[in-house]
Amino acid sequence: MSFLPTACAPTLNEVVHDLLASYSELRRYLCSRLRNPDDAADIAQSSFAQAYAYALNSPVANPRALLFKAARNACIDQYRRHSSEVAALDDWMNRLDVLSPSVEEIVIAREQLQQLIERIERMPRLRREVFVRVRLEGYSHRQVCAELGLSAKSVELHIARAVYDLSELSLACRHV
What residue ranges define each of the domains in the chain, with the CATH number in brackets? Predict the structure, then answer.
């Protein structure tokens, strides 16, 4: 992209003509380099727009070179953008691997959940009812007292015994 003295510089019409004449060559070149006709078309179009905008404000000695230089820069920008996107995706995938449980961990968790359900089902009916309402359904102690006709102390004891029953299971699960 060299500048010529204004007397030797091609007119804007000549520059546009040269840009248009080089456009299909640029598309073929980009298709062969990028191996993606859509990306090639996008880059060729944006390169043409950049070269044309430059030619509106400055004299252009070699419109073809300007067009190809703009395309080269666009390809470099696209490569950098793509590289950073791939790096971000790889980073996300690596974090996902850490956050996602393995098949073995899922199987173990399901077995533990099944043991927990069985342990809760084996509790005496009233203890189970109080525990489920308070700890799983979010009822207040006062609500459970009113609905089941129990004293506050009785509700506390049922919950304490249920937690104790389940803590034995928790200890057994840790040793697995």
Answer: 12-99 (1.10.1740), 103-174 (1.10.10.10)
Q: Which residue has the tokens 């207040």?
A: 140
- Interhelix angle 141-148/152-174, rounded to 10 degrees, is 120
Q: Which two tokens stand for residue 133?
A: 């309402």
Burial class (CB in 10 A: 0-12, 13-18, 19+), 88: exposed
**Residue 159 confidence (pLDDT) above 70:** yes
Q: What is the pLDDT of residue 4?
A: 47
CB contact burial 44-70 (16+ within 10 A = b; e otherwise): beebbebbbebbeeebbebbbebbbbb
3-class DSSP assignment, residue 124 = coil
- Over residues 17-71, the pLDDT tens digits come to 999 999 999 999 999 999 889 999 999 999 999 999 999 999 999 999 999 999 9
* Residue 101 near residue 132, CB atoms below 8 Å: no
pLDDT of residue 45: 93
Give φ, ψ of 40 to 5 degrees.
Answer: -60, -45
Q: Could you give the C-alpha distances from 67 to 12, 47, 60, 63, 166, in angstroms and in order?
A: 14, 6, 11, 6, 73
How far apart are the C-alpha atoms of 141 and 158, rounded to whole Å? 11
